[in-house]
Amino acid sequence: MKARYLFIVNPIAGRGRTEKRLPSILALLERRNLVTEWCRTAQPREATELAEEGVRKGFTHIVAVGGDGTVHEVANALINLPVTLGVIPTGSGNDFAKAAGIPLELPMAIEVLLYGENHRVDVGRLGDRYFVNGLGVGLDGAVSHRFQRMSHLGGELGYLWGAIHEALTFRARSIELRTSDWEYHGRALLAGASNGQYHGGNFKLVPEAQVDDGLLDVYVIQDMLPLKRLLEIPKVRKGTHVSLPEVQIRRASWVEIVCDNPLLAHMDGEPFQLEPGVHRVEVLPCGLKIVTVGQEPYPRPEASPTGELT
Prior knowledge:
The structure is a single chain. The protein has helices at residues 17-29, 46-57, 68-75, 95-100, 106-115, 139-149, 155-169, 226-238; strands spanning 4-9, 35-40, 61-66, 84-89, 117-126, 129-131, 134-138, 173-178, 183-194, 216-222, 247-252, 254-259, 263-267, 270-274, 277-292. It starts with a strand and ends in an 18-residue tail after the last strand. The protein is of the alpha+beta class. The relative contact order is 0.18. The longest helix is centred in the middle third of the chain and has 15 residues, at 155-169. Helix 6 (139-149) packs across helix 7 and helix 7 (155-169) packs antiparallel against helix 8. Strand 1 (4-9), helix 1 and strand 2 (35-40) form a beta-alpha-beta unit. The strands form two sheets. Strands 5, 6, 7, 8, 9, 10, 11, 12, 13, 14 and 15 form an eleven-stranded antiparallel beta sheet that branches.
């Protein structure tokens, strides 16, 4: 069966960078003999609805053109289905693309989309929503909320500024984490469950996480003084913070998060509030089919008159 591609474009992803890069993406694809349809999102969760419609129409590949939020929304329509998720990463963080081995450079991302290999990866679930990269509460949730409100900074710099500001001002909360063989009770600076290594663009928060190992990496960082938080940020970016006594990471198929007060949180970088109560987060092994880097070499991209590869 010939592949049919539905491209779902979030034009405001990456602080509007997706809209600016769309002509280059179209140019890279125009000489391909593809069956395609394109649509744009205009409001939250619309990408999920468009992807669900694409499934009904029989598209074999549904491609998220945007950042982690766009990927998150599209993926939520494809769980446990034979339809393949493709990603053209044009967002601010692109955490899932990095975790899944999808190149961030447009020409190579498109080569992988067309000539890569299908691969099944895990997803996490909280209630009726799924995440592909990670769920976090506490300081990283506060950073996601702050980043969404920013209008002057985007990309890695925006996340870094948000992390610095929250490191100096965030008030740690009491939390309880429970897995089948481990528990944590106490005040936490941040905590969560991750499928991928990176959060917030270039913070290697869970350096050993793998998207296809059938487990979530459950993490907690205990509270520390604001100055120490600030000084440890470079370690989090490198992934060397795991040796700190305040850091604990466990692998598990599920975790219960218990909180007595509302907590700022994020799911794949999308901010929300975790309400008081007991929340079960669990992994769905091999729950999503994606296309990612396969056996190279791919057909070599050609240079266009503008210098872009095609």
